[in-house]
Design a protein that fits this description.
Elements lengths: L5 H22 L5 H7 L8 H18 L2 H22 L3 H30 L5 H49 L1
Helix pairs in contact: 1-4, 3-5, 4-5, 5-6
């Protein structure tokens, strides 16, 4: 009796949720700077320059998330997840694994792209303390996403290796019999 690829179902469901939220994010219109001003009211302890830096940073991040490259990454990622699910439903585990590997590699590229665009947006912040805080947080988040994706990639490669090994052993026992 063959084992069911539960690991791939779990990874694909998580990836489908992430892709769906990303698709909704790029389908929503790009807010104006005025919308950011109304959503960031003047808070106590924040001066006008810090507020303006926050608005400029938020707008630059939103603008980068609606760039052609990012939209292409998100759409292609969603397509890869759907294709992998179709392969998995059709019980073509090898193609489902390969498609998921493609998705994870694309997610790593997306994480690197996000990091680069966040570093560009950080340059708009004039307050050194605020810039350092935003920069450290964006680096930590980017590293976290890359590490998670590498772990997912390693899991899929390990499972693919085990499946190939089991297939070779099965063929070997058939030859002996």
């Amino acid at each position: 009796m063959k084992k069911k690829p539960i690991y791939l179902w779990v990874l694909l469901i998580l990836s489908a949720l992430i892709s769906a939220t990303s698709l909704f994010g790029i389908l929503s219109p790009l807010p104006s700077k005025e919308a950011f001003r109304t959503s960031h009211p003047q808070a106590g302890g924040v001066n006008a320059q810090q507020l303006e830096d926050t608005i400029n940073y938020s707008y630059k991040v939103a603008e980068a998330s609606h760039s052609i490259f990012n939209v292409a990454l998100v759409v292609l990622s969603a397509i890869l997840v759907v294709v992998a699910i179709v392969f998995l439903v059709r019980k073509n585990l090898q193609y489902a694994n390969y498609t998921y590997v493609g998705y994870v590699l694309l997610a790593i590229i997306g994480s690197i792209y996000s990091y680069v665009t966040l570093q560009d947006a950080v340059q708009l912040v004039h307050d050194e303390t605020m810039r350092l805080g935003i920069s450290v947080i964006s680096q930590a988040v980017s590293i976290f996403y890359i590490v998670i994706n590498v772990l997912f990639l390693a899991l899929v490669f390990y499972k693919m290796w085990r499946q190939q090994k089991a297939l070779a052993e099965e063929e070997e026992t058939e030859e002996v019999a």
